[in-house]
Amino acid sequence: MSHRQIHSSLKVLLVSNLEKSKHYYREVLGCEVTEWWVIRDGFTGLAIKLLQADSLEDVSPNRCARGYNQTAPDVYCYVENWTALDELYAEFKEKGARIVIEPWIDKEAGPWKEFAIVDPDNYCIAFGGTNENKQI
């Protein structure tokens, strides 16, 4: 196949309160919020479709997964480098995001650095990446 058929993908989340979630993604995560989407850095960045759940039982964040000491991410965002990652962390923390995994470095995986937050429905959004120019 010579041409790219899939340009991007996104996550669909069922939320308990659509307006509250839209507010969070706009004010805390700095997303553009439309009737259908929350987007940061275009559809190839953080892109989520939020849908109002019929009932609270339908809101279902991931639970623990093998290999994770904490909740498994529902959405994972790859970040260009550690400078961008640190900037996101500082921005989200300043705006009141609930950080569930503080920034940490896995020296055996790249090295890889990541952190994670949760939204009002406890969906976990992780941010991480490598940084070849960073000495650890």
UniProtKB/TrEMBL annotation:
Domain VOC: 5-130
InterPro entries: Glyas_Bleomycin-R_OHBP_Dase, Glyas_Fos-R_dOase_dom, VOC_core
Protein's recorded name: VOC family protein
Species in which this protein is naturally found: Neobacillus driksii
